[in-house]
């Protein structure tokens, strides 16, 4: 009976294989990209809406607190009719 020793080199034969290394001239980036549409870019540019709305809400709160805010019943009724008709 013949017993052969495999040795340390035979334990992981994959380490001994030659790897084909690609040249460094092809440097492709595998990073993710995000592209924002033109409409979204325009929407980002219009940030005045939020500030105008915040100012309006602040003014309404002050008017309500001071008792100066008056509700226009006709306008409320017209808006309710528009909402329920359509």
UniProtKB/TrEMBL annotation:
Keywords: Bacterial flagellum biogenesis, Cell projection, Cilium, Flagellum, Repressor, Transcription, Transcription regulation. The keyword Transcription regulation applies. This is Negative regulator of flagellin synthesis. The keyword Cell membrane does not apply. Gene3D superfamilies: Anti-sigma-28 factor FlgM. InterPro entries: Anti-sigma-28_factor_FlgM_sf, FlgM, FlgM_C. Residues 32-82 form the Anti-sigma-28 factor FlgM C-terminal domain.
